[in-house]
Amino acid sequence: MGGNPVSGARLGRVLALAAASSLVLAACAGGTSGGGDAGGDVTSVKIGFMGDLTGENSAIVIPPRNGAKMAIDEYNAKSPKVKIELVEYDSQGKPDQATSLITQAVAQDKIVGLIGPAFSGESKAIGGQLEENKIPSISPSATNPGLATNGWTYWHRVVANDGDQGPGIAEFLVAAKSPKKAFVLSDDQEYSVGLADAVAKSFEGAGVTVERDKFAKGASDFSSTVTKVSASNPDVIVFGGYYAEAGRLLKQLRDGNVKATFASGDGSLDQQLVSGAGAAAAEGAVLACPCNIPSADVTGALKTFSDNYKKSAGADPAIYATEGYDAATAFIKAVEAGNTTSEKINEYLKTINFEGVSKPIKFKANGEPENNDIFVYQVKGGVLKLLGPAESAKLEG
């Protein structure tokens, strides 16, 4: 998932700045930090979490934040020699806000690692700063393939990229619907375009005719797009983007009597897609995601996680909750092994190999995860239902 979703007017920015200021004050009042290579015993280190926590697409980012917080709270409850302080940075998914916040995180707060950024646009914007300052990062949700091609040695993610997600969506729809024609839509954000490109390329490789349209981020009137899609009369429609726009788009497509199967990726995997489109319009929509959201009937480690998450967050686990937990766990394991500087933590991440809640966690040399499963969900009766891994899932209805 990625991009720089539209959210927040001036008031939102003021509130975000106020929150950031309070974080700085809180950090200044804290105990001994392990932000550098200073001598003496390190009693605590700071790990940041960055993403959209109050903006239009925050429902995608709050669950991984909650998962990360839970992992760190569980660790600190064991009274370890070195405690971990989680410092939150609300970027609202905006690259420019992420840029200023990471400067504060590194220079003032002395973080030794970062969980995030959540989105691809902000990840691209600050990756160079993280590399320059030798701060390891693990994103629970940024999926743009290009992030792994910058030669960054401090960057990691625990999710499959859109190069896997796009084909996962297209191949699933080809198997389920045997489409002759597909219409691929996106807004103009980093994540959205990348996902749409990957989907279109995969469709074309399968011999499906593809038509495209793109609109500005934050659009609310899709009449021009609806007209184009209606005239094309496709068998399937795939949207690369976020739930806030996906809901509006889907409603207007259905109002325009476009009945083709509608699909989207992880950025749209939230109940607010249904509330935004209306239950009738959203029914049957297909969502793909490199995320494993525990369902009510899970067992074993996923059930333990789910039960603990409900107590900790006061809500059921949602998108990227398990990935947030696993990203934090990777940092926790590094600190447990005696690594308290950013460079030593990064060296340790190269050796990480453990059974995470979402998947086995191990990183390739370029920071990509070894495991790249894609899962398919469908809106049934107004709720999101997990159909299973893309290669074996079966469409319902």
From TrEMBL:
Superkingdom in the source lineage: Bacteria
UniProt keyword Signal, yes or no: yes
UniProt signal peptide: 1-26
UniProt KW keywords: Signal
Pfam families per UniProt: Peripla_BP_6 (PF13458)
Gene3D superfamilies: 3.40.50.2300
InterPro entries, per database record: Leu-bd, Peripla_BP_I
Residues covered by the Leucine-binding protein domain: 44-382
Stated family: Belongs to the leucine-binding protein family.
The protein, known as: Branched-chain amino acid ABC transporter substrate-binding protein
